[in-house]
Amino acid sequence: YIQMLKRVGNVIETPVAYDQLTAEQNLNYYCKISGVVEPDAVSKALAFVGLTNVGNKKYRDFSLGMKQKLGLAIALLNQPDFLILDEPINGLDPVAIVEFRELLLRLNQERGMTILISSHILEELYLVATRFGVISEGRLIKEMTKHEFDLMAKRFIQLEVDDVATASRLLDSQLISEYKVVSDHKIHIYQENVLIRDLIRQLVYEGIAIDQISFEGENLESYFKELVTSEGGN
């Protein structure tokens, strides 16, 4: 049981650290009480979350985003396989939210880490999660993959461009076959795992002017409300 716990990291909604200590000092303390002996554990954790250059700044002077990053660094000291996060982006500004999201994606994609997130900010969850569980009044009432949700909600990427014909040929060349031309300037892409940044780069390279790219269809929040209401929950 103890060995299993060592493979788990966690970040609570309000991370706990010592106000009078720096990021490095806090991590050194947590290494001691957690039995982490790797000599470079602290430097690696600081580098990963982007707190290497905070110097002698005390925890009490950290922004909320920096505090969340330090909480994540503490959770990563023992190199866990499984990470549990409780409302990790509550109160963060938009820039801090994006930075934290990118850290989580890196942990999953580069380290193969499984991450369990408890959050009420559902649209942000949609950007990172691959599987969803809906809990109402302490009961798990629905579990589904992101693909299953997209099928139920009929989610799609709406692409508005000046040259639909060229854009369609580009989609075909990128093996994106699940799309529909709905007007002279609009395409709906239904295919899963389309990387928006790569698609934009290719469109620009081909000289196609992009007027707008957006996600359309029922969002996770409206689906959640409908599901909970149908179950008689609050």
Which structural traits does this protein have?
globular, four-stranded antiparallel sheet, Alpha-Beta Plaits, alpha/beta, 10 helices, 21% strand, Rossmann fold, 9 strands, three-stranded parallel sheet, 234 residues
Q: What is the average per-residue confidence, as pLDDT, rounded to a whole number?
A: 89
Helix proportion: 40-55%
Helix and strand pattern: HEHHHEHEHEEHEHEEHEH
Biggest β-sheet: count, sense, barrel?
A: 4 strands, antiparallel
From the 3D structure, determine the CATH topology of the largest domain. Answer: Rossmann fold
* CATH architecture field of the largest domain: 3-Layer(aba) Sandwich
- Please identify the top-level CATH class of the largest domain: Alpha Beta
State the gist of this model:
This protein is an alpha/beta fold and 234 residues long. The chain has helices at residues 2-5, 23-34, 41-49, 64-76, 94-111, 122-128, 146-153, 164-173, 196-205, 220-230; strands spanning 8-11, 82-86, 114-118, 131-136, 139-145, 156-161, 179-183, 186-189, 210-216.
3D structure, described in words:
The chain has ten helices and nine strands. It is an alpha/beta fold and 234 residues long. The chain folds into two domains: 128 residues, Rossmann fold (3-Layer(aba) Sandwich), CATH 3.40.50.300; 61 residues, Alpha-Beta Plaits (2-Layer Sandwich), CATH 3.30.70.100. Helix 2 packs across helix 3 and helix 3 runs antiparallel to helix 4.
